[in-house]
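We give the chain.
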Amino acid sequence: MAAVDAAFRSIPRNATYFLIWRIENMQIVPLARDHYGTFYTGDSYIVACATEVGENGNSMLKVKESRGPLDVHIHFWLGAHTSQDEAGVAAYKTVELDDYLGGVPVQHREVQGWESKRFLSYFRKGIRLLEGGIASGISNMNNNKPLMFKVKGKQRPVVQQLANIDWQYMDDGGIYVLCIHPLVFVWAGRNSNTTEKIQGVNVAQEMKAAFDITTVVLVEDGKEQTLSKNEKEIFNQILPISQKKVKNYKEVMTDTGKLRTVIKLYRCIDEGGTLKVTEVKTGPLEQNDLDSQDSFIIDNGESGIWVWVGRKASQKERTEAMRNAQGFIKKKGYPNHTQVTRVIENGEPPEFKAYFHTWHDTITTSSLGKQHTIGKIAKTVQTKFDAATLHTNRHLAAESQMVDDGTGSKEVFCVEQTDLIPLDVKEQGKFYSGNCYVILYAFSTEDRDHFMIYYWLGKQSLKEEQEVAALKAIELDQRLKGLSVLTRVMEGKEPTHFLAIFRGRMMTFQGRDSVGLQNGVANGNHFSQCYLLHVQGTSEFTTKAMQVEKCASSLNSYDVFVLFSMDIVYIWAGKRSTGDEREMAKRIASQSGREVVLVSEGQERDDFWKAIGGKKEYSHNKRFEEDIDTRQARFYQCIIFSGHLDVREIIGFDQSDLVDDDIVILDTWNVVFLWLGHCTKTEKRRFSVSIAEEYLLSDPSGRHIGTPVIVVKQGNEPPNFTGFFPSWDTKFWSKKKTYEEIKAELAEENAGIVVVQNSTSRQDLGDDIDKFPIEVLRIKDAEQLPAGIDPSHKEVHLTEDDFKDAFGMTYTQFQGLPRWRQLELKKAVDLF
């Protein structure tokens, strides 16, 4: 074995661990555990994490012996002001460590401010980015020098020290912590969210404990004038209130989470010591596009570059993969901070597999038990499910995608223009490709009733009726006080539970059927016609039948078909079909009331061939079946910015990552869940399914737009959703304190906490009235003003401080003036 740095020799073998080293004077030095999560912008670091396969690592991970394979990730992190020499040492030592660990770890290049989601996931309390190097940084923190930090992030915040303290570096959507002994100020922008405000308070409390601070002061944007005389004097020393001018949050937002729709694959070949890079294809990608003999680059643009190294690639390709990727970035003109990750064949993480339309692990690992999919449904549903069992066993519900056994009550409606027509019980389960349907399903557990609303969209249905189906489903949910789970279903992509509620009798017919004049009975009257159904499924939980062309060429030796003639129903069973498939075909055939005849392939009589239209050649090969991948669930926070969807992934998610004002996508590959927090704006809730559709369309792996979308609302999560979380507490949100409660609690319990409360004049301005900068309020065209502004009383939309700056008095004093004088002043400040 090649020589390895002494700092790496203490790494435990065959065990889990989490370790960090810092580059000091070109040497690798272990970092003390109490400094984990703190990084200096002038330094470089190496982070190594080893977990059992399928588990997520974190900075608190303890050394634990493991007999199975390990997932190992190595990150080298480069501060914004690190030297080229230190960065080079970090990169070189990462390769050395990789070689020492057998060349199998996933390597990541991390640049300050653009860290990968996996890197950030290690630190549950977030990371701290301090100015300078280790020596100068500690000195700055201990010499009572004024400091300012920006707190960004709802759950794992990045707390970054700003090099300079000035209004020009602040925006009205941010949270800033200003430390000037003996006070710590938490300044919250008017457009900041409450979750980040809470994180700001947490950071201030940390500083209060660490640096002998006596008082924490919470200040809302526009309320600086309400500080006490002493506090205002201290605040003015670092941020003169008279010079206040902050950016609008939209000016500083970035599209870092936006998915790139198209990706490219390049092959890297070592030809006599020279690396040759050639483009192979433009996505979506398939696993068989990769070749074990070579290495490949997946180009996802500024969103990241991945280097995949085949197990038979040369040693040079392995060791120089990261350097070659950085050369690729430079050649493409991508920013230097572009994330670079190297993976070895059979060691691909979920983030990598997500770029491929299909992916099958060649090595079976223990992690598959944790990757809940509906792939095992054919086996698991043989056990009787009931709602009580599934609501107790969340993980079984998630794996099977069942919330009960489908024996609850249901109502089925067909969309006819702008109305919903209820279907007769005998017609339920018969779908037409040219129609749309809404299904209300209800079942009960010991504690309450549960409702599920499906809206099914036929492939040949009108766009207008698809929109009506979605709107009617939402209206039905509103009548149920928002207590239902809403699911969009596209023809051919029916989820397991949807099939289960029709008990193996779902049939899809071609064409359109009108139900409006038949009291819910289909006009098409298929059971008096001759047609052919292809039956798929082996149980009442998985079976559906689809109409195909009535001719012998539609048959297949691996399948079962039901042929309806005028007098007889034939069940044609291919030689390679199963007994379970034949039994389910009998269930379909029995609905007509006609004589049922079983016909085995090779034993057909003339009357069968006559009924199907004569003998023809047909396939004896197994049909292509859509793969059911075993993929780990992935969790994304959704942000709508400039009309586009940004998604921010959280790795190692848990229930605490579901925030009240968020829209979250939980992507389990076969189903996409959309979780809506209580505080989500009404407009976003109404068009939530379109968010999931945009997500699917932008997925570079080429996902099917018909993937089932399930809308879940906070506090009403079904077990097939909660089962993807490591633990679930139904009382979690009721126990969680709001920002206002935290402020009140701090003020009451800690004499060192000062909360800058609203003065009487602000109450007069209205706590519930939206506030805007005066430049926005000066817009003359009322239609161009933001929603909610009263054009005749623009002044009430100013913050207290902005009002005082504009009018030279408080709002209370303004109210005491005669009406004519108020109008004169409003004209003078251009608010009339």
The chain has six domains: 6-130, 147-255, 264-358, 381-514+631-730, 531-612, 774-829. Confidence is low (pLDDT under 50) at residues 364-383, 757-763. The two ends are 80 Å apart (CA to CA).
